[in-house]
Amino acid sequence: MSLSDESQPVSCAELPMPPVGVGTSIQLPPVGIGTFQLKEEKTVYDILDVALSIGIRLIDTAQCYNNEHLISKALKCLLPKYSLNRCDVKIVSKLHPKFHGRIKSHVAIDNTVSLFDGYVDVMLIHWPGVTKIKI
Prior knowledge:
This protein is of the alpha/beta class. The chain has three helices and six strands. α2 links the parallel β4 (about 60) and β5 (about 90-95). The longest helix has 14 residues, at about 70-80. The protein is globular and about 45 Å long.
């Protein structure tokens, strides 16, 4: 299949892009799926089903999207469908601004981590500085 053939879906495996190195220990796929505004369980499931079927292996979410639990639930069903393990899919999430700060962030991050089999691959600070907390 040619990348210029608009009539056929392109598998991520066919894209001419290698994984991106982050530091020395993690490789991120160059293409992922964002989940902002995905709120319905069936929609999350269907979108992740298609994404995994075409080779997407990076999922971007955030605590403030209020869908991490839906993504986790969908992955528990979908990973076995595609003979994948949790380690085959990279999860990027973001700390909600209301949890910025040393103390509140620990609990919030632990909650996210617990949804995704004990780890997320990348955890970002969403909208840093918006709460004006001194570090």
